[in-house]
Amino acid sequence: MLQKFGFTQYESQVYEAIFAQDAPLDATSIVSYSNVPKAKIYEVLNRLIDKGTVLTTMHGKKKLYMAVDLQSIILKIRADFEKDIEELKTYKIKRTFTDEHIWTLKDATSIASNIEQLIEEADSSILFLAWNEQMEKYRELLEQKEAEGVHVEVLAVGGLQTSLAHKYSLIPMLEDSNLEPSQLIIVDHGYLLFAGIEHDSWKAIKTTSKPIVKAMTDYFYHDVALTQITKKYGDQLLQDEEIARLLARLIY
Hints:
The protein has 252 residues and is of the alpha+beta class.
């Protein structure tokens, strides 16, 4: 059973041999009870001592060994396992190769899961454009990442109530504008997901292709700029029919 939790066969035999006796044992007796070769016994005992499963003391000139109670070992195994799980949760693996492929995603749930994962794994920056209904799903996570020191900028179509420092709200100004819901997230200047609705279903692309990431980063700030311009000068600009038509094509 101990071998299932990382103990070697020799370690299991030595522990069982010591635990089965009422009194502490010396190395010679342990060899006899455990059937572990004499040449290996001290190496195995030292590993068990390091694991905290065997105690040692000196009796005269002889070193004696005693096994830790099995229930204590069970508690230690559980505590070590839970600690390792927590460390694994926080461990991040960054890809070292350049992937120029464009991967496609379907299904709204899958797209949402990928967006959440990208936000959670962000180390330095997040750019996020989405309709307010979609962005609200990630608002708390985005605020958390900003609190951790990640630079977060969001552009919410329809507005968003949030504590984020860099937030922009695009409020549609044209009554006949044909808004098409979309989502764009760019993380750490290297990971991108762009999603839109096609035939009433969400579809998306995901890539780390540098040219595409750069182009879509420009696209994000292009929309931010237009949002701020129309917010400040919208009434004046929309009086010009040609500019109103261009704005409708650019931002709506």
